[in-house]
């Protein structure tokens, strides 16, 4: 489904990615681990088309995304890719339901259909009773589950998560991890997850370790 071919990225004289090759298959949960500064977020942003490599390519279903212009790339991203970040990035002035709906409105989908799906997704996250709450009125675990529903609203082929449980206590982290596996089992959802959480890294179907600008599989 997703392929990185000889991806390189430097910041000034700092070579962060020195030629990354990897493949992600459909309905896999792949974890990416490595020490702080190893380049995990840099790689995730490039795989998720939020950033460009200096050289090399990212292919989705065999097609290169580097040739897409700004607008086509934004459209591609909103239809095919979901993101979950360490800090949920929910908009504070909107309710949970509205936050989940927003990426779908931006993709031009009809309001009625989107709201129905958003309520379903909040239900899957055990949050139907929190739909009208604003982020500040929810716990950290609840906020992060809203951001999972938001990542799912456009039925992306792949979801990239950067330390999604980094800000959660053990119980909420475990609950979130269970949701990832449930989504994989029920919806065939594909995940690439950067994590410092050993338990999650080990539970994944595959674990990719970043070291010295390269990846090794464990
Ligand atoms: N925009 C930037 N400009 C300059 N250097 C950068 C930039 N972004 C990242 N770096 C550097 O690139 C290296 C890799 O950063 P990256 O954020 O990918 O690491 P990481 O593996 O995600 O670390 P962490 O586990 O702490 O999140 C770091 O040394 C960082 O300082
Ligand atoms: Mg990082």
Automatic annotation (TrEMBL):
<keyword id="KW-0547">Nucleotide-binding</keyword>
<dbReference type="InterPro" id="IPR003593">
    <property type="entry name" value="AAA+_ATPase"/>
</dbReference>
<dbReference type="Pfam" id="PF00005">
    <property type="entry name" value="ABC_tran"/>
</dbReference>
<feature type="domain" description="ABC transporter">
    <location>
        <begin position="2"/>
        <end position="218"/>
    </location>
</feature>
<dbReference type="GO" id="GO:0016787">
    <property type="term" value="F:hydrolase activity"/>
</dbReference>
<dbReference type="InterPro" id="IPR015854">
    <property type="entry name" value="ABC_transpr_LolD-like"/>
</dbReference>
<dbReference type="InterPro" id="IPR027417">
    <property type="entry name" value="P-loop_NTPase"/>
</dbReference>
<protein>
    <submittedName>
        <fullName>Lipoprotein-releasing system ATP-binding protein</fullName>
        <ecNumber>3.6.3.-</ecNumber>
    </submittedName>
</protein>
<keyword id="KW-0378">Hydrolase</keyword>
<dbReference type="InterPro" id="IPR017911">
    <property type="entry name" value="MacB-like_ATP-bd"/>
</dbReference>
<dbReference type="InterPro" id="IPR003439">
    <property type="entry name" value="ABC_transporter-like_ATP-bd"/>
</dbReference>
<keyword id="KW-0067">ATP-binding</keyword>
<dbReference type="GO" id="GO:0005524">
    <property type="term" value="F:ATP binding"/>
</dbReference>
<dbReference type="InterPro" id="IPR017871">
    <property type="entry name" value="ABC_transporter-like_CS"/>
</dbReference>
<keyword id="KW-0813">Transport</keyword>
<keyword id="KW-0449">Lipoprotein</keyword>
